[in-house]
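[[Per-residue structure]]
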Amino acid sequence: MDTSYSSNLYFGKKLSGQPFYTVSGRIYCEDDFLYSGVHPSPEVCSSCGYLIKDTVLQAHGRSFHPSCFRCVICRQSLEGLPFTVDTDNRVYCVSDYHKIQAPRCAACRMPILPTEGCTESIRVVSFNSNYHVECFENDVNFI
């Protein structure tokens, strides 16, 4: 970005005090620079749909403003944090993903979640039903 141009007007726009760009000897205000084709196609945020003029956060082939990269459930910012996506490419924090996508225990109806500090859950599957280990031991009668 060049801010040293001394003219106050260029193509009818006042540039004094505004950011502008020079490319191949031509001067562009910021909007014209972004939309004129002289600049590589600007990134559009996959969340809000607005142009990304500063830092681009890319995840799973999509671009986001860092402030827009959030869990669809709790709206927590996921910049720099572990995250996962579902089959519809919705972004989740790991905790909410497990709560939403985890299998439910046939005995207590609660989600079967990984224990704290783990990424995998342990479950018992019996007759096409899922159980917490504790619930299976207490609920199933083999007699």
Remarks:
- The two ends are 79 Å apart (CA to CA).
- Residues 1-10 have pLDDT under 50 and may be disordered.
- DSSP finds three helices and twelve strands in the chain.
